[in-house]
Amino acid sequence: MAVKPIPEGYRTVTPYLIVQGAETLIEFLTQAFAATEIRRALHLDGSIMNAEVKIGDSFIMLSEARPEFEAMPTMIHLYVENADELYDRALQAGATSIMEPRDEFYGDRAAGVKDATGNYWWIATHQEDVSATEIEERIKTLFGNKELV
After folding, report:
1. Is the distance from CB of 148 to CB of 139 less than 8 angstroms?
2. Structural domain that includes position 97
3. What CATH code is carried by the domain that includes residue 31?
4. What integer pLDDT is reported at residue 1 of this predicted model?
5. What is the average pLDDT value for the chain, to the nearest integer?
6. Is the pLDDT of residue 43 over 90?
7. Of 61, 53, 77, which is closest to residue 18 (Cα–Cα)?
8. Is residue 6 in some structural domain?
9. Residue 70 lies inside a defined structural domain of this protein
10. Number of separate domains in the chain
């Protein structure tokens, strides 16, 4: 049987997080986002060389920062059934709020949190399909004719 070039269940793009505190991040993702740890490989010193977790239908890879691969905080966007509920779970799991849940002009109810390793997680539930034209109109209404930075 031929090996698939993209492993079963993976997508073309898979985020890879390098953090100080990989174990802490895995615990947070498990508690906050119901992540399932798929596998873990360790360096000889016991630190995480590579781990894979699955959140919903998506995989995230991660590892402990090392001198040759420094920590690199990132932002990840999650679409979920209930943004408010997941936002609350993330806070209970130790995240810091960066934006409370609110309805956005582009059709999502969105919130943001920062985990203990410095990553930002945008949590959203899509509530309304909004055309590109309507988004432009809403931007003009909200922000006037000012150019967005």
Report:
1. yes
2. 16-143
3. 3.10.180.10
4. 77
5. 95
6. yes
7. 61
8. no
9. yes
10. 1
Give the C-alpha separation, 15 to 32, whole Å: 18
Percent of the chain with pLDDT over 90: 91
pLDDT digits (tens, 9 = 90+) for 15-37: 999 999 999 999 999 999 999 99
- Residue 18 token pair: 């390098």
pLDDT, residue 85, reads: 98
In a domain, 42, yes or no: yes
Write the single-letter amino acid at 79. Answer: Y
pLDDT 10s digits, 89-103: 999 999 999 999 999
CA distance 52 to 8: 14
C-alpha separations of 19 from 11, 34, 65, 115, 142 in Å: 22, 20, 5, 11, 37
7 domain-assigned:
no
Hey, what are 100's tokens? 């409370």
**What whole-number distance in Å separates Cα of residue 96 and Cα of residue 32?**
12
Residues 6+ apart with CB under 8 A from 147: none
> Who's near 132: CB < 8 A, 6+ residues apart?
none
Q: What is the pLDDT of residue 123?
A: 98
